[in-house]
Amino acid sequence: MRWLFLLLLLINGGIFIWGYSSEGEQAVQTPVVSSPGVGNIRLLSELSSEDEVQPEADDPVQGRLPEVVKREPVPVEQETPEITATVDGVAEETQAAVDGGEQVATEDEPVETLPAAPEPVLSQPYCGVLGPLEKSEAAKAIAAQLNQLGFETSSREQSLVRTTGYWVLIPAAKDQQGAIKNLKALQDKGFKDVRRFLQGPLKNAISLGAFSRRVNAQSRRAEVEASGFKVEVRPRISDSIVYWIDLRLATGGAERAADILRSNYPGLEIRKQSCPRIVRP
Fold it and tell me: Rounded to whole angstroms, how far apart are CA atoms 235 and 237?
């Protein structure tokens, strides 16, 4: 813009000097002949400060010639370096406000960390087994007592093979005559309280006694073998049904459950087990 302004100023000055020198030489002003298609041309000296060059309405090609407008010089602005002040924490504060109003802390201000709320500690349920019980009526009575104490219970039965004692015997003979012969031989040696099995899996064997403890059975065996007889010790097996109570305590934990069971049922076996195994009613 500055160069354009200087160029226009030089052109106007040249036109003014040329027009001033030619006024004295021309006595008669000749009309200006304009070519068709070209608008009227007026000198800058003929324009007043209030006039503006406007295109004529009847000009068919108005606007083709550049308009000359007197303009005031535009002051050149000095470039001022842009000063950008960034305050630490402002951008972070704005972003935090947008994200949901969270607390913003600058570098100079320590971040205040709120303690996390403690999670509630839920007591785990206790699950276990109580028994064995010989009769179903006893199992039902104990289950009812446990229900009143807050337990969930269910009863189940189990077939149990028990060793109730030990037989000391002479192995079974091939037939009845052989069994009678063995019995007579024992009696001749002075052994009393002997008898022959007449039926069952021990048919034709000779019983030398039944003992509840194995050590006593072994002592009797050694005594008879010293007389030259072949002796065996066999466990006495009996089948029976016992009853167990599966129980679950939802609140209070294992300590409370163990205290209740130990204090109320000291003669029964108490076993803890995993809760999924509980058969609920």
Answer: 6
Residue-wise pLDDT tens digits, 40-67:
555 555 555 544 445 444 444 444 444 4
The pair phi, psi for residue 25, each rounded to 5°, is -85, -30
Output the six-digit token pair for 166.
């030990």
- Cis amide prior to 132 (ω within 30 degrees): yes
Rounded to a whole number of angstroms, the distance between the first and last alpha carbons of the chain is 100
Phi-psi region of 209 (alpha: psi -120 to 50; beta: other; left: phi over 0): left
Cα–Cα distance, 160 to 157 (Å, whole number): 9
Distance CA 186, CA 193 (A): 10
Catalogue the E-assigned strands of 171-257: 195-196, 206-211, 232-249
Query: What are the structure tokens assigned to 233, written together?
Result: 């010790």
Report the phi/psi class of residue 204: left, alpha or beta, with left for phi > 0 and alpha for psi in -120 to 50: left
The model carries a pTM of 0.41
132 pLDDT more than 80: yes
CA distance 14 to 7: 11
Phi, psi (rounded to 5 degrees) for 104: -110, 135
Six-digit token string for 204? 């034709």
